[in-house]
Design a protein that fits this description.
Length: 189
């Protein structure tokens, strides 16, 4: 399924749309920060990498086979610019399992945008894409993302201890998951 004709998605405050190559500067503004890259288990982006990622994401709108990824720019409806992103990766097409994720520019955190965008994407995954089970993997120290998962009604299913080596630091992860019936409206920020 090509999801491009179904976008943008809107919420009371946000618009979720495909990235464009012109979003590279906004993407670089937060993806270049070590504090953001730390929870993504990869180095901070260079400007060139941000340009490449924006172009790649602009072309990703197909949802069919394992590994297909939908990355949407999170924008305020009343102002220009990209606040962050939400992602959905088809982990197992036959079992209808998908991984959800979100990253927000730190300047826009703490205002409920991540919860609002993640809930919209989760509902889209369940209602439009036919996802059966949605899960999120996050660093246990990423307390903001833990709160987003809990606001959405996701349950903590696993605590993986020192399962990932990030440079010279062992990281531990939580896995949260939900079925369609588990999802709730976010309650504040």
């Amino acid at each position: 399924m090509d999801v491009a004709p179904l976008l943008p998605m809107t919420t009371p405050r946000l618009s979720l749309r495909l990235f464009t190559p012109g979003d590279a500067d906004d993407l670089y503004a937060y993806q270049s920060l070590p504090s953001v890259a730390r929870y993504l288990y990869r180095p901070a982006h260079t400007r060139e990498r941000s340009e490449q990622v924006a172009a790649e994401r602009a072309a990703q709108s197909v949802w069919r086979v394992d590994g297909d990824k939908l990355a949407l720019a999170v924008c305020r409806r009343d102002a220009p610019g990209v606040l962050g992103e939400v992602t959905l990766t088809l982990a197992h097409a036959r079992a209808a399992q998908a991984e959800i994720g979100w990253t927000l520019d730190p300047r826009h955190q703490g205002q409920g945008y991540a919860s609002e965008a993640a809930l919209a994407l989760a509902r889209f995954a369940f209602d439009t894409l036919g996802v059966h089970r949605l899960y999120a993997r996050l660093d246990v120290e990423n307390t903001g993302s833990v709160r987003v998962c809990e606001r959405l009604g996701m349950r903590r299913e696993a605590h993986l201890v020192e399962n990932d080596l990030d440079g010279d630091r062992w990281g531990s992860e939580y896995i949260y998951a939900a079925l369609a019936a588990d999802m709730v409206a976010p309650s504040g920020s």
